[in-house]
Design a protein that fits this description.
heterodimer, A: mainly alpha, about 0% strand, B: alpha/beta, 6-stranded mixed β-sheet, 5-stranded parallel β-sheet, 11 strands, globular
């Protein structure tokens, strides 16, 4: 596929995302919807879907590229487990204000990035393998803390459960705005390092010989991508699948050039999450289906279809 | 001319402000007329207080009283559907307090009146929840009367419990694999008022997961089970030697909602439980 065609596919993806967002405004359990429902409930929800979907998928593309690992997902460095621990500690401190949970979760998730980086640094360098291992270790540690909490506190553990249930029902605009700005800023940073990321996927040595400050670039990319994930998890809980599979889908559609792949993943993630959420709140109304379950349920068959057609999984 | 315009603008703005504020403050003298309940225990209280007609929306878990099942469903306890709630145009939403519930701040942000009750841990707190709901739905008097009636019945239960020839030890299993209640739970309090003793009332906590060998060690005379059936207890390794299992003193057929919802129906549950306990200790 030529570069210009890929540019066009980006345009198409952007238009599709816009269209799906517009459609999602008019889909829901209440028909016909009043203007209150459209503006005060669905609009923030669609916006949140766009932000979280693009943040997770964008971060997924960065992680997969930089770690050269097709199984890397946005939660691979323990960000989400750390967010859960933050909420759990808020519960232990009997903090009763809702936004405090958000800041605890965001704070811990951001803190975990620093911890992972500190653990992974050996002699001033942070090899890819040690980053992954450090992420796994930090993630296991925080998971253990959360499980411990779950086994000791019965009712209190619902707090963590409720908070981390992947859902786009957050209605506090300030919190959405905070997470949104973090996601947008970090996305911009990741995108502007597309060329360096392309080089990194060829291997660190190659990147070094191409004249790239490998250590600095890695640090910037990992911190920015993790911060995006932290912001997404704090505001919408754990929504799986998107960060892992959407970048793969997009790589099959637009190719592995990160200048195109990162925004394409963002569009794809947004499109996918917004549509899945519209379905989630509608198909079993008045019940809401967990949107994370639905993304995997719809996405997996489509992914298999793409896979059979292109047979290009995991090529960077 | 400029001043006139400014005055007009101010007038317009204040008119808008009044229009914006006014509707949320109007409450009819009989209390709220469009109530949505986000928890089964609160639905039951509201119906008991005679506010059933004012209720327009409940959760899918709200199955009692039967009239509640005819109300519009707004989703389940964990995932209420905010669009459905708003579409019902409620003037009051009652919810059990969960810090992490995303829906309450959202509803409040939209100017909807939400009353959050605490999650009761004792009979005294259950009385408080009933009073809170009573005040919220404009039936404080009936709530007070209901509480007094409950207190009377609880006193009778306690008197009868004290006259038991002996006070058997009880293991209450509220959930699998072995979640039970500690002293800071109204279930434990109810068991002791009925004349028995919770084997884990030395733990100052509402609920705890215990190891199964501790239950064997504490050897309860009676088991009350909310979830597991009688035959399941016989299948648990080593549990055959527990007195309750050996002597078939397992109570697994009580309506768990009566004992676990934390409202006025707890007293019904207590009376049923006490009758069963009495049959065991007086045989």
């Amino acid at each position: 596929m030529s570069t210009s065609l890929r540019r066009y596919s980006l345009l198409w993806l952007g238009l599709l995302t816009l269209a799906s967002a517009a459609v999602a405004l008019f889909v829901g359990p209440v028909r016909p919807a009043t203007s209150t429902i459209i503006w005060e409930i669905r609009l923030p929800r669609v916006l949140l879907g766009v932000l979280v979907g693009s943040g997770l998928a964008g971060a997924g593309a960065v992680f997969q590229g930089a770690l050269r690992n097709p199984l890397a997902d946005p939660f691979i460095l323990g960000t989400s487990s750390a967010a859960a621990t933050g909420v759990m500690i808020a519960g232990l401190l009997t903090i009763s204000h809702y936004s405090a949970l958000y800041f605890m979760s965001l704070g811990f998730a951001l803190l975990s990035i620093a911890v992972v980086y500190r653990i992974a640094r050996i002699d001033g360098k942070t090899p890819i393998q040690t980053i992954v291992l450090a992420g796994v270790i930090v993630s296991l540690f925080f998971n253990a803390a959360v499980y411990l909490f779950f086994s000791i506190f019965y009712r209190e553990s619902f707090t963590v459960l409720f908070y981390l249930l992947g859902t786009l029902t957050e209605g506090n605009r300030t919190l959405i705005a905070i997470s949104g700005s973090i996601i947008c800023a970090c996305f911009g940073i990741c995108w502007s390092f597309s060329r360096e990321l392309d080089a990194l996927t060829q291997g660190e040595e190659t990147a070094f010989h191409l004249g790239i400050g490998v250590e600095t670039v890695k640090k910037i990319l990992f911190v920015a991508a993790s911060a995006m994930v932290a912001a997404a998890v704090s505001v919408a809980g754990m929504i799986g699948f998107i960060g892992l599979i959407v970048p793969h889908m997009m790589r099959m559609i637009v190719g592995a050039d990160h200048r195109v792949l990162i925004p394409a993943s963002a569009f794809g993630g947004a499109l996918f999450l917004v549509l899945a959420d519209a379905l989630a709140r509608t198909i079993a109304a008045p019940l809401e289906i967990p949107v994370g379950a639905l993304t995997a349920l719809i996405g997996s068959p489509y992914f298999v279809y793409l896979l059979r057609r292109t047979q290009k999984i995991g090529e960077f | 001319m400029k001043k006139l315009r400014a005055a007009f603008a101010i007038l317009l703005l204040s008119a808008l402000a009044i229009l914006r504020v006014a509707p949320t403050n109007i409450v009819s003298e009989h209390g709220h007329s469009r109530i949505v309940s986000l928890a089964p225990n609160l639905t039951e209280i509201a119906f008991e207080l005679g506010a059933g007609k004012q209720i327009v929306g409940v959760t899918t878990y709200c199955t009692y009283p039967p009239e509640a099942q005819k109300k519009e469903k707004i989703g389940d306890f964990i995932n209420p559907n905010i669009e459905k709630i708003v579409a019902l145009n409620p003037d009051l939403v009652v919810a059990e307090r969960w810090t992490s519930s995303k829906i309450v701040p959202h509803l409040r942000g939209m100017g909807i009146n939400v009353v959050e009750t605490l999650s009761p841990k004792s009979l005294a707190e259950i009385y408080q929840v009933i009073r809170e709901v009573g005040t919220a739905v404009g039936r404080a008097d009936r709530a007070e009367a209901l509480v007094r009636k409950m207190q009377e019945r609880v006193r009778a239960i306690a008197d009868r419990g004290k006259r038991f020839p002996r006070h058997p030890t009880v293991y209450v299993e509220i959930d699998l694999p072995s979640w039970t209640v500690g002293r800071a739970s109204f279930i434990s309090e109810a068991v002791s008022l009925c004349g028995a003793r919770n084997i884990f009332d030395d733990v100052e906590r509402p609920a705890l997961q215990v190891s199964r060998e501790t239950v064997i060690e504490r050897d309860p005379e009676i088991i009350i089970s909310f979830d597991a059936s009688v035959s399941e207890f016989h299948k648990r390794g080593g549990w055959e030697q527990i007195r309750a299992v050996r002597n078939e003193k397992i109570i697994a057929d009580l309506d768990r909602n009566l004992l676990s919802h934390g409202n006025h129906r707890l007293v019904d549950g207590m009376e049923k439980l006490q009758a069963r306990l009495e049959a065991i200790v007086t045989k």
